[in-house]
Fold these 3 entries.
Entry 1:
Amino acid sequence: MATIQDIIDNVEAETNRVDKTAMITRAVKAVILKAHALDYFPQDRVSAVITPTTPGLIVTEALPTRWRKFDIIAPLSSASVSLKKKFIRRDPDDMMYFDGERISDHFHVVGSNIIMESESSIVKVGWTYYTYPDVTTLSASTWMTARYEQELTDGAMAYVYKKLGDEKTARDYRDLWLGNARIGLDGHVLRMVGDNLIEDI
């Protein structure tokens, strides 16, 4: 299973530029984050049950670590049973019906917090969200690094060669990563997205 460091080592070996470790490390981290952000992949989805410190009609909670986007947020009973409803995302300036009544069962994100509002007291919440990978620990791996070591290496190589001023080689690696319709090359990105959006049965 390839780690972030393995991909850094691959790029250093292929470019023969061990003197550019800091730049290569930034490039590898960036391409891993971009790969995970290509779409909302099932492998990046996390579920949890939250018990608010202070239950009420309006509850504020900190966003999860490395949160990217919520898939679903639903109020639960105190026994963690579904109440058969879910919170809808609303903008803070769009929380009233035309007749002036306040819309219930919604949430919005403000800074590093999520604010949820319901017509009945919120005692527990079940949420599922998409997360970014942790790229701070170089000895760690993600499902992308484990499955697409060469592809991520190629993506990082495009960035590194561009920074080194070798535009032709950078373009060749960019074509491998993104594809090039002019020469009939699909590229890694298209395949990586196609491989991973279908849920396992």
Entry 2:
Amino acid sequence: MDPKSAFIKQFGDLIALLRADPANQAAQESALAAAAAAVARQGLEVEAGVEWSSIPDDLTLKGRLLARGVETVRLAAGAEPQALLRLARALAHDGVPIPSTARVRVEMVSFMWLNPATSVEDGGVAPRTARNRDPQSPDRRRWEERRGAGRLRWDDLERRRTPDRRLSGERRLELINDQRAEIAKLHDGLRRGARHMAWEAMLHSASMLVRLQPRVPVGERRSFGIQVRRDIPARAIEALVDLAERDPTGRDRAADVLRWIGLDAAEVILERLRQSEAIGVRGFYYDVLGGMPEAYPLIRPLLHSHYTHEIRHAAVLAGRLGRPEAVDELLPLLAHRDERVRAAAVGALGELHRGSAAAGLQQALHHRDPKTRAAAADAIAVWRGGALALLLVSTLETERDWDAWQAMVSALGRLGTLDACQALATVALTRRTLLRRRGYTTGQRLAAVTALGLATTEVARTTLERLAREGGGVVRYAADRLLHGGRQRAG
């Protein structure tokens, strides 16, 4: 399979899992690693195909690109897995803004929208045909001859008298004026909602304003943002967080608004995290703060807190923010007395794809606590697409804790690379006997075969076919079941 087809398949599976099975983190990590590997050496370009006669399935990459109005996704060689994950999460949702970075460039479809007050259904003017829009058409009518022009001819200075009105921007002025009227209406609703403490109405107006920002002319965006933030007082930020805690259905809109507000919202959410474990809404807090890189200076002091839950929250957020300077702050946490703090620090190092993070993961893989070693195996599986997979291979023979060993084998299976599959095949075919004590038990051999079933790469399937031919007994049976079990995959 060529890299582009592999990326479309694996990235589409990742989006489908995030949309249909968000709790299946193991499969998501495997699909993300495979998608990152497909663009590791060469750039790709994926087009949505907006002129298709039929819309693809909503759980495919093409279907989600069309549903979100994305025209083209251009991926540079070596695109970061974290950037791919952010794009997949945005495509899996229906309202989250689509991110674009230097290595992952997204081009949206340009839509020409009509003001609902002048739509055809309400008795307004229907859009002009392509022939009438062409200034060179011999059938183009003069203004006075047009039927239902919709407004009077404008003769003031704003009218631009150039040969090509389209290129000069005259027609865009109509859209800008309509947009300004809509923005003024939303601003009024925002202020009225804050004044009367109608928080749901205020959230609706604020989310609509946030979505309108990309359409605001560049020269006016700064003043637009200042005015919107000024209309959301401190008590309204607290109320928005309370509303999101009570109503899960409105959390996506609240997250967009809170991220757009910035540091004021970050301070409120961090204070909520510091108060308790925040079991019910912790994921929501992480999603909001994880999309605010400017909040790291507020998070960094919590890494040195005296309370373990604050350290864990800060470690997870440091990993989600992808700040390379956080590596030096996380490495000392590998020696923390609390195993949950160590696990959070190891998981964060797995998301920070910088040099010294590799040394920290290697150190955690040989920690005296088996749970920390298991966490290190999971982190190695996502660090730079499995660049440290050979560390897991060399540790399989010496690991004596079953849970940690199982985590290492599962990590190799999720990677699905050539080295990982060869190591799993060696485990599955090396039987422990009285004369060969360095082999593996039947349970370990079956675990290796099961781990191969987690991978969706062609190498993993070829390895399973080999085990179905060369393996004996339960290994051959398990490999055959995985090959012909008819597993259903999302997308």
Entry 3:
Amino acid sequence: MGKLCNPVFLVTTFTVFLSVLFANFLFMPLGDYATQRIMLTHGLSVFVVFSLAFLAWRHGCELLMGIWPAFMMSAIFTLPAIVFNKNAFGATETGMYAAFFVGFVLLGFLSRSLNKTHDWVVLFSYLAALMTAFYGAVSVMIYLFLLSDGVAVFTDHLPWGFVNIRYWSHIATWLLPILPLAVLVGPLKDNHLWRFLVALGSPFLWWIVFLSAARGSILGITFGVTLAAVLIGRSAIPWLFMFLRYLVLGLLIWVLLSVVVPSFLADDIMLRSIKTTSSGRIPLFIEAWYMSLENFPFGMGPQSWLTHEILSKEYLNASKFGHPHNMYLMWAAEYGWLLIGALLVFSVQSMRLFWRQRSEVRANNSSEPALLLAAFAASICGALFHAGVSAVFMAPGSMLIGIFVLGLFWALIIPDSVVSVSARPNRRLVAAGFLFVIVGTLCIYWLCGVWKYHAAMTKDLDYYQKNIQIETFPRFWSHGNFPRHSDHMP
């Protein structure tokens, strides 16, 4: 199986990048957003079933000891769906979160079990650099066409391929700290043509970040990169230098393409400014806070943000969205502070493993492992920060990229003792078969719920467009305001 893993990982990762960054050029039968959601849910199901069975066969019951934090998160996500679920589709969204946490932890264990961590990290960083370079090149082509057509407001068209600018910025947050690895590790690190190609991709992503004034990305990446550089220390300097180099190049490209060139073609330059306000998020945060206290510590149930009676006067007249633009407050409101406590336990466990690996890397003066650790730690810390002001763990594109980043980071930090092979083949075979049947049955049931949810949402869309005078803001589906409060249902 090990010999097949690199091609399978390569094809899977390439497909994910293609579907996320170039959805506009592909045949997406259900639309970009829904097709990505189907890819996420079905891909997670297949991966969780087969990888869990394989790892159980290879490691036996010892595997469960290593992934207990993921099962804890999955169980606490599932509990409110069983006890407090008040609509027909809350369990569907709950299943996505449960599978997501188990999935990325299993990816890390599978990578370590097959001794493929370094290969997969290099492949991921190379594909990220290659695909973002093409994305940047196509963006410049679109920009030039817009200029030739006399379009002044480029942010209406760039970034392209996403429901909105916010969801594009999630991808930038995940990838920008990792892109410097493409010229620091692996067989192509000294290839001048490859280094030039990567130097095209990352700066153009930065250009779009500045062009779209993606505050969440800028703040999240700044936080993640600073924290990672401080924690790793001198060993991270080559990665930090390359990151800053691409940042400066991106800033220069923004000045050239968004200020200098338009100034020769138009009297007024339309630049999107970085807002210093909350963009209407504070009323959403207040409402989610009140919700989290209603049924403390269990929350009001999955998707209750869409269906609950409004609790705060601030939110009554505020703009409505499919989520409160804060993943932690949304989880607290719907799944309760019990889940947030479990998330803290999971985070502490991850930090403990990271700190142990950091100490080992610094003690051995290992340059390349330090670079990998710094880049992935910066990406994840940036995404966790960004999740405090946006739906980083809700948008399907972000989750598709995020599961690889989180899984590979987990592979980098777990100790070798956790992935030792069990010496009891009979018990391992029984455990693998049991998990395959039980988890497979649960996943089939969940995927049936996903399709039922899609059918009901599609059926509701016609009524919604004719009778509900608000946007179809995205959540699980692009038409994410379904189900909603009973007063607005057919």
